[in-house]
Specification:
Elements lengths: L11 H13 L5 H12 L4 H10 L13 H14 L1 E11 L2 E7 L6 E3 L1 E7 L2 E7 L4 E5 L3 E10 L3 H7 L2 H7 L7 E10 L3 H8 L5 E6 L2 E10 L1 H8 L4
Antiparallel strand pairs: 1-2, 1-3, 1-7, 4-5, 5-6, 8-10, 9-10
Helix pairs in contact: 1-2, 2-3
Amino acid sequence: GGYLVTARPYEFDELRLLAECVNSARFLSENQARNLRRTISNLCSVHQAKQLNSDSRVVNRSKTINTAVMKSIRTITDAISHGRQISFKYLSYSFDNLHTQVERRAGKTYIVNPFYMLIDNGYYYLMTYNGNKVWTYRIDRMRDVKELIVPREYEKEFKESVDITNYTNRVFSMFGGKREKVTIQFRAEKLDTVVDQFGTRGVKYEKVDDDHFTVTTEVELSDMFYAWIFGFGR
């Protein structure tokens, strides 16, 4: 006797891609990323598993030190599906101790209306709405996340005022601001980069000449937006 594996649920290239996504996720701790890679490795042969864990390298990707991220995500997911508010403490670094995050607002509890979770630049964010403005919070910086029995507010207002499809095109690195319609002129070779950022839905592109074009779209003006603009140099 013996046996022959003729097919597996996933191709090896698909598993490699999943492992690389885990490696690049900043909202996971080192231990969580290691455990997930081990789970993915169980879906391939032992020889492929060794290759899977040795091939992928991600440069300049610091991992969170918050080990409760997976539990927080589960609680938030439940609250969104139940249409309820959540409470949490929010963390940040201080110069007194760069290895341990401390609670913002002297430990005051945040109570918000959760609507969506978004991944941007390797971080997992929670999108909330208070009736006037969208607020986003890094999930890996949230502590003691709890689902409340209080129903979520501003359901109708959120649906009418927030276009989730275009939200990440408008907001830069999750730093929101005042929404404005802007027209920006770029050199022609930057077209791919601009389309990657703003997309094409509801966005107007016009050719100025052989070397330049303009894009007209809505953005949320913030320091990060201007930093993106200045990143193109002259």
